[in-house]
Amino acid sequence: MEQALQINELSELKLWHPQYTRLYFGNEFCNWRIPPLGEFEKIVEFVHAKNIALTMVTSYCNDSEIFQYRQIIEHIIQGCPEPEIIINDWGMYRVCRDLPLKMALGRLLVKQKRDPRIAEFIGTFPAQARKRVRDIGLNKSLLNFLHQENVKRIELDNVSQGLDLTDINNGFNFSLHIPFVYITLSRYCKFNMKRPGEGLRFSSCINKRCATIEIFNKNIKSPIFMRGNALFYKNYSLPEDIKHSRIDRIVYAGDTHNNQH
After folding, report:
1. What is the pTM of this model?
2. Of 129, 112, 228, 131, whose CA–CA distance to 177 is shortest?
3. pLDDT digits over 248-259, tens only?
4. Rounded Cα gap, residues 112 and 52, in angstroms
């Protein structure tokens, strides 16, 4: 089982440990936090020094951000032959499809059922509904398209109701992200404000680090966390049958792995 560390900024490189053989770098949930090219240059130096693999994470994006990502990707290709790119926007897929790199389908394009209340009530669901809330929400036509386009890896959230990958053909492998389970996001970010009265800034993030805030909701027993412009809950428990599934990579956010041991 491959183990990877996911970070959003250079300061988090201090969390790297020899147990990891791959580094995920970038922010998949916020298009305002695209790391500058200079940071990616340092990341390329780091992975070469540690002899580990690099996965570049991209977010949803507009035309100008796609252009920015393309410049970064072309630079990375020069330093890392066949790097892996996480695609969270179909526009980015069109950019990357003809480049010498490996593509993986990101969590924003995977249609898992992520409501944290599902695990509490799943025992009352009919069999067909239980199966649906545990699958990844991609129909056979889309899976066939991805396979034909050489997208052979799919990124998954560790949803608390469990996973059912039995209907997916053997052409795919899966990465499981621990512990934050993505629920939803917005292009609005309460943290990305200018000074009072000046409104929002839509070009880049003015914060060096997104705050993580716990949100209370009386209808949801699981704690909900706001990180920047996205909502998450936590699930540290790995699926019981993970060794017999096609999940062959665990991606730990921050110091999660070290906190578990």
Report:
1. 0.90
2. 112
3. 999 999 766 554
4. 30
